[in-house]
């Protein structure tokens, strides 16, 4: 960016547990972002973007107030702050993989608390204070909900009767001898926009382009491309065993009677699929990674 040139969009990138997976996703989407070890200002190879690293818990407020035009955060933190923002798209990824995360009520294994109603008049520790209060109030449960500054898993039973904690697999809760009572919220990463920025046609077009590329990069995370050579007599048999995003692409090779077939498939199916294709007559099979899949 040239000196005194103002970027079209100010983008907030989540600092912390989502940082590495977010930067990886942007690289696959075509944006190279460099972050210094002690810097909160990333360098983005798009002159229309200026970025800041912000904690996901704070992102929605800065987007709502127009300090940032767009940001990536969890839907849980948007709900926690009751932020008035435009949710542009859902991006199904988290620190541990391509799955939603859950906020759960958990108690020690030996706790007499068996259901949410047992939290009445009890003490609950969590980072998700405002959402938890609203959720329990809606259920008619009066509980003392306190903010936890961290290490929430160790607070029950001595410092709290129950906790509301974020989990992906539940392994940390089990390691701390905690039992899940109920899931109160499922959350995914979302791309959010300031409402006024969304009304600006030039900014909105850029935001929609970014959303499309990020979603395309996510679709490609668990997909691979397959190319193979097939004789004319084997084409119908090969096509029947090929799972694909759409119909396979078939093109003629220079060698008479031979064709090239190309498909996109789930990566987890490839190890069973390639031997099957080979047995059905395919040759020259090539598997290759994908950066983006745009329907």
Structure notes:
Helix content is 28%, strand content 32%. The strands form 4 sheets. It has a 5-stranded mixed sheet with strand order 4-1-5-12-6, with helices on both faces. With 295 residues, it is an alpha/beta fold. The protein has 3 domains: 9-98 and 189-220, D-Maltodextrin-Binding Protein, domain 2 (3-Layer(aba) Sandwich); 101-187, Periplasmic binding protein-like II (D-Maltodextrin-Binding Protein, domain 2, 3-Layer(aba) Sandwich), CATH 3.40.190.10; 223-289, Alpha-Beta Plaits (2-Layer Sandwich), CATH 3.30.70.120.
How do the strands and helices of this protein lay out in sequence?
Elements: E1 9-15, H1 19-29, E2 33-34, E3 43-44, E4 49-55, H2 56-64, E5 70-74, H3 75-81, E6 86-91, E7 101-108, E8 123-126, H4 129-138, E9 144-147, E10 162-167, H5 171-175, E11 178-187, E12 189-193, H6 195-199, H7 201-220, E13 223-231, H8 235-240, E14 249-252, E15 258-266, H9 270-279, E16 283-289
Parallel strand pairs: 1-4, 1-5, 8-9, 8-10
Antiparallel strand pairs: 2-3, 5-12, 6-12, 7-10, 7-11, 13-15, 13-16, 14-15
One letter per element, helices H and strands E, the order comes to: EHEEEHEHEEEHEEHEEHHEHEEHE
CATH superfamily of the largest domain: Periplasmic binding protein-like II
**CA-based gyration radius:** 24 Å
Main pleated-sheet profile: 5 strands, mixed
CATH topology of the largest domain: D-Maltodextrin-Binding Protein, domain 2
């Amino acid at each position: 960016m040239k000196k005194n040139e103002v970027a079209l969009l100010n983008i907030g990138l989540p600092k912390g547990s989502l940082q590495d997976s977010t930067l990886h996703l942007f690289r696959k989407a075509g944006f190279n972002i460099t972050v210094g070890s002690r810097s909160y200002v990333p360098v983005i190879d798009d002159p229309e973007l200026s970025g800041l690293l912000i904690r996901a818990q704070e992102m929605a407020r800065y987007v709502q107030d127009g300090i940032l035009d767009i940001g990536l955060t969890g839907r849980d933190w948007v709900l926690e702050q009751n932020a008035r923002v435009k949710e542009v798209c859902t991006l199904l990824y988290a620190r541990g993989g391509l799955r939603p995360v859950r906020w759960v009520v958990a108690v020690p294994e030996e706790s007499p608390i068996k259901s949410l109603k047992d939290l009445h008049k009890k003490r609950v520790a969590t980072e998700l204070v405002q959402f938890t209060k609203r959720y329990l109030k809606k259920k008619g449960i009066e509980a003392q909900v306190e903010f936890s500054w961290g290490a929430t898993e160790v607070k029950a039973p001595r410092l709290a009767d129950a906790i509301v904690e974020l989990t992906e697999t539940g392994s940390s809760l089990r390691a701390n001898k905690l039992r899940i009572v109920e899931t109160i919220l499922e959350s995914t990463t979302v791309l959010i926009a300031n409402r006024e920025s969304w009304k600006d046609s030039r900014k909105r077009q850029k935001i929609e382009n970014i959303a499309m590329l990020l979603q395309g990069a996510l679709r490609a995370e668990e997909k691979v491309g397959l190319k193979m050579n097939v004789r004319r007599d084997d084409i119908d048999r090969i096509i029947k065993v090929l799972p694909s995003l759409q119909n396979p692409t078939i093109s003629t090779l220079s060698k008479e009677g031979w064709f090239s077939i190309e498909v996109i498939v789930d990566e987890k199916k490839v190890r069973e699929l390639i031997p099957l294709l080979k047995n059905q007559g395919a040759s020259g099979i090539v598997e290759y990674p994908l950066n983006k899949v745009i329907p």
